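User: tokens in, sequence out, please.
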């Protein structure tokens, strides 16, 4: 009965990737409350504290496509394990950094490892999960990251109180080491003599073909992370403090409501994307997400702010399953008809899947990297209403692009 329930809600093949994701996200969350204070302890200015965060994001962004290429060469399991090992070593070294310059360099090196394990996990999912179940797979995968990220900061704050500011860096290294072991143990490659080897060779030789579906996948990922980085984590706290007069605890309550709304919608959104198709779910979800951003301007006091935040989080949860599902559709169009997606192929070199994962991560990271500055400049130059327009434009473009694609309905497996 448990097995039937798991297969009805999520594809069991996604569980190994989810296990790695929750360990990595928990470790990453450890540094959230600690890293700015640790960077400040070197005596730098506020912009130098931001540079430590930017170094990680910038190196991850420029490493995404090369990471996808490497995944195709060494396979998902080795790529994820190597990426986690790089982050583990760089994090432990950052905890021992003698100067601010060393801290920036070592955090930047961690971004390379982050790009590698992210591309490896995405490529694994593209190989292990049938296209018609990818919506549900993405809901579990994203939920794992969300769960780990939610608990990580609490653990990190407690660890800093006991071990000092350097302690969480060593704990993060330990979490990444554990994730590397889990990846090598669970994301297993197929034996060379397997009868799937011929199918894998065909997949490895297939180029990634550009198509409207691929464009929709990349655009929707960019739009989603543009809103998360530029709106949820940048504009919302500023607006809540300056326009609504809320304090830090109230602002945090809104962010928590957003996270809970996100988590509550993930599973039904993934199932709907598989049953009714990506366009049927994605278009209204992205349009609704844009409208929910505008709803913040109508918020009045704490209750209105919390409700607007919860609405944004729920719609963000619905949109989060779409980019990965569309990417699976785009990859399926690039593969030969004789190539089947099976869990047995997932640990091997992904062929088209690795480079597809690299481009998807590039789109996501580009939105997350550029949006905080772009939307912040819009606030400074024109105020909050024009900044909201800047925030929602990519989501509306993604919805318009999805409305024009002729993607087949995704579901061939019934949703129980």
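Assistant: Sequence out:
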């Amino acid at each position: 009965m448990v097995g039937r329930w798991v297969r009805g809600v999520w594809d069991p093949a996604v569980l190994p990737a989810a296990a790695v994701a929750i360990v990595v996200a928990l470790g990453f969350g450890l540094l959230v409350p600690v890293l700015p204070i640790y960077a400040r302890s070197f005596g730098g200015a506020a912009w130098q504290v931001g540079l430590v965060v930017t170094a990680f994001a910038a190196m991850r962004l420029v490493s995404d496509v090369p990471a996808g290429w490497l995944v195709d060469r060494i396979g998902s399991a080795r790529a994820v394990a190597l990426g986690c090992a790089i982050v583990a070593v760089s994090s432990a070294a950052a905890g021992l950094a003698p100067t601010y310059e060393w801290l920036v360099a070592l955090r930047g090196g961690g971004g390379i490892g982050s790009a590698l394990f992210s591309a490896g996990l995405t490529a694994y999912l593209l190989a292990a999960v049938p296209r018609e179940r990818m919506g549900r797979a993405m809901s579990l995968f994203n939920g794992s990251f969300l769960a780990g990220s939610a608990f990580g900061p609490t653990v990190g704050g407690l660890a800093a109180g006991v071990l000092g500011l350097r302690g969480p860096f060593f704990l993060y290294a330990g979490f990444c080491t554990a994730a590397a072991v889990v990846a090598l143990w669970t994301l297993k490659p197929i034996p060379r003599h397997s009868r799937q080897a011929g199918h894998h060779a065909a997949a490895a030789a297939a180029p990634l073909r550009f198509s409207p579906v691929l464009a929709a996948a990349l655009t929707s990922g960019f739009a989603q992370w543009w809103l998360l980085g530029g709106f949820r984590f940048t504009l919302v706290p500023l607006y809540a403090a300056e326009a609504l007069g809320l304090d830090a605890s109230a602002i945090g309550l809104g962010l928590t409501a957003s996270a809970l709304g996100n988590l509550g919608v993930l599973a039904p959104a993934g199932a709907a994307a598989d049953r009714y198709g990506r366009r049927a779910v994605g278009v209204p979800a992205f349009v609704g997400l844009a409208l929910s951003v505008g709803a913040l301007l109508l918020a009045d006091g704490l209750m209105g702010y919390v409700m607007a935040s919860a609405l944004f989080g729920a719609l963000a949860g619905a949109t989060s399953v779409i980019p990965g599902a569309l990417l699976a559709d785009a990859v399926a169009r690039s593969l030969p008809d004789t190539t089947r997606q099976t869990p047995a192929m997932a640990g091997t070199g992904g062929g088209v899947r690795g480079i597809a994962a690299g481009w998807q991560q590039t789109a996501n990271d580009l939105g997350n990297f550029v949006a905080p500055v772009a939307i912040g400049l819009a606030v400074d130059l024109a105020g909050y209403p024009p900044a909201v327009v800047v925030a929602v434009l990519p989501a509306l473009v993604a919805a318009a692009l999805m409305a024009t694609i002729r993607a087949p309905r995704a579901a061939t497996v019934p949703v129980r």
